[in-house]
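Data availability excerpt. The first of two example chains:
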Amino acid sequence: MSFLSAATSVVKRLQQAGHIAYFAGGWVRDYLMEHPSDDIDIATSATTEEVEALFKKTVPVGVAFGIIIVLQEGHQFEVATFRKDRGYVDGRRPSGIDPATPEEDAVRRDFTINGMFYDPITEALYDFVGGAEDIQRGVIRAIGDPDARFGEDRLRMMRAVRYSTRFNFPIEEATEKAIRAHAFELLPSVAMERVWQEFKKMSRFAHFDTGLITLHDLGLLATIFPDLKKTSLAEIARRVQHIESFPKGAPTFGELLELFPDYALEEILDLSEYLKL
């Protein structure tokens, strides 16, 4: 059974049991943009206990946040209960969650292009946040109040740059303004391991050099690497100009080293330790 067929069978099983269930987030975005994707998340009205009762093989990876992994036909899918998040206190995760409607679940997500649902059974799109329109416009826009979205999870500021670079979409004005205002808050709210993962994800696609330049322009790069605080945008652009010539699959750390051409071996080792590599 293909990945898509297996995911569809999970949705069908949930719906037959009387629950709402849709594909969610990134797969829906990529489907509308006609980009191939093998990463399907499922959102449902079923609780984790109800999901466990329906499927033989599950892994309780984040039950406190309504998330469970379902293993189906050799594939695994993250199945999350529609939720409303309570207050955020650490710039990373909510203090608790409450059951929600699909629309309430959508408005807590990060960007409009990631906030849509798709029913693979009826082939219906559920877009409560204007994501399809923003894909047509070609823009990265935070859902609702961008200051609030970045306050909930400050890593979203880096994600905005990653999506902007990957899809060649500009960041919407209010969203960009909020990033500039909150860039200095990225650390220590976000663990360095998560920052590193964003760099890795960004480097998987073309124009990583552009992403690094944008990160610096918005104040994020100098927040992550204080040694770059006095480095001009033009100099950053000069340093990263050869990254696009690196072979596909080149180590992300090697690409980042282009930012630090004068580092001695000891400083490179310190940088590796700083990034928790």
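And the second chain:
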Amino acid sequence: MADIHPSLQEVGKALLEAPFIVITSHTRPDGDALGSTIALADTLRELGKSVIAVNQDGVPKRYAFLPCANSVFKPGTIKEPPNAPLFVALDTGAPDRLGDQVWKLVAGRKSTLVIDHHASNQRFGEMNYVDQDSPATGQLIYELIEAMDWPLTPTARDNIWAAMATDTGSFQYPATTPRTFAIASRLLKDGVNLAWMSAMLFQNYPFRRLELLRDLLASVRRSEDGRIASWMMPQPLIKRLGIQPDDHDGLIDMLRSISGVVVAVSFEEEPDGTVRISARSLDADQANVAQICQAFGGGGHRLAAGARVQGTLESVSERFLAAVSQELNHDGTP
């Protein structure tokens, strides 16, 4: 597979030349994954392109309010596999994170274009536009639209805002740049309803999320030196409360906000016997969670990363927390 590192203009050219395009993002999509997908798909449709937007897990209820969210389909709802020469993977660092059903849907593709901002991206496309300095893939979609002088539709505008707002923690995370605020200012001038978007993104949770937070806070564990905080979500708890994957988005920030904590870790037990790890760091010089997660088969950013590991909650959490402790204590002292 040729690994081409294109410019934004070359990315735009490839999109314009493709007669049919399938766009997707990672499973368990967050605001950046969905916002980027919808924004790019709507922009290309405005330009007269034939586009299908898919996601293996579909659109979580939390993000159903996004404009044109109903234009993102599950692969199983598409009766005939599209003969799409170009397949676009957004906000996804590794091919297995797209899901088997998506790959089956695009089995006849001629080329894969990856647009992403994760430092651990595996460059699995023929063309890979990866900018790890960008705080969100949504920001890259805006940069593409601007570089190509394409129209910014109201749907693209709102979805890019959602993508940037969610992946920057409402413009608070360290990766947020002056350019991010400049783009946000442009989006606001163009008509983003800030109060409504903020309420829908950050103040619109089901009651079960509060119940989950109650139980998680009761189970918080801290290392002896107070620099590591973690909690675990066992399957019985998830089933009892009827927790959906997006219900605990952002809750890990409660752990990271504890004074003295450098690394926060959430362990979620999956029905298939794996454990989903989410890790956050306040200081990448002390603990680069992307590197730690890569050692467990995952990846992400220096300050926010994850992995999925076979094993029990107890065994996986013990191994991972030991790795975090070793990273924090560079001499290996536990």
